[in-house]
Amino acid sequence: GAGAGIAARSPLALFAPDPRLATAARGPLGAADELKEVVCCLHRAGLEVLLGVEFCTTSETQDAAQFTGRSLGCIDRGLYYRETGAKRPRVLAAGSPVVRSLIRDSLLYWASEYRVDGFVVLSAENLVQDAFGAILDNAPLAEEIAHDPVLRHLRLVAAVGDAALLPRGGERGFPHWGTWCEWNARFSDVLADYLVHGARGRLSAVATAFAGSPDLLAGRWDAGLPGSLAPSRPPHHGVNA
Prior knowledge:
This protein has 241 residues and is α/β, with parallel strands linked by helices. It is 29% helix and 12% strand. It has one domain: Alpha-Beta Barrel (TIM Barrel), CATH 3.20.20.80. The strands form 2 sheets. Strands 1-4-5-6-7 form a 5-stranded parallel β-sheet. Strand 2 and strand 3 form a beta hairpin. Helix 5 (185-196) packs antiparallel against helix 6 (203-210). It is globular. It starts with 29 loop residues before the first helix and ends with a strand.
């Protein structure tokens, strides 16, 4: 759905593309039809399509006045959202069973209806918190997505905005169950230092980043880790960006 903010990353309708994406006057389904055509063309060209999605902020979380008769907040503000008291005062309560179902259904819809090859989940740290914001090693939503009979065969990439909101302070990255990949933001930072700022001493870091930043996935605990954070997570589960 149509998003709010500069990047239009705060949608409300989780099952529809932004109608502003349509290039022709083809009625209310124009954006959907054109997006399906784009995906088909990219597939014919041998390219995979990963859809960027966000299940953290919505177009109504920034301002309570946005709660309207057609909004999640109007249906049940306390069920669909949780207060954080942080820079994002209100986010989707991804740990709530109802919201978990909504998010899974949304991903399944995009996968089946638009035939996308996977998803890049922005602000993915919200998926590993319960309905009250507690951080979980084995977050039900992230695990359900990883084991879903359809979604587990797609590319699932967690783009984390705040690693401190991951289990164990982000030491082991996003919980993966051998399925989730993690967006490697360090890659772009290292390349910017080397190519843009001329930090020639960063050449070793550049080589490490190109190799998938295995240093980010080095185990810090020898035992007692749940399967979601297992040390055996291979470096190829990082996605350079």
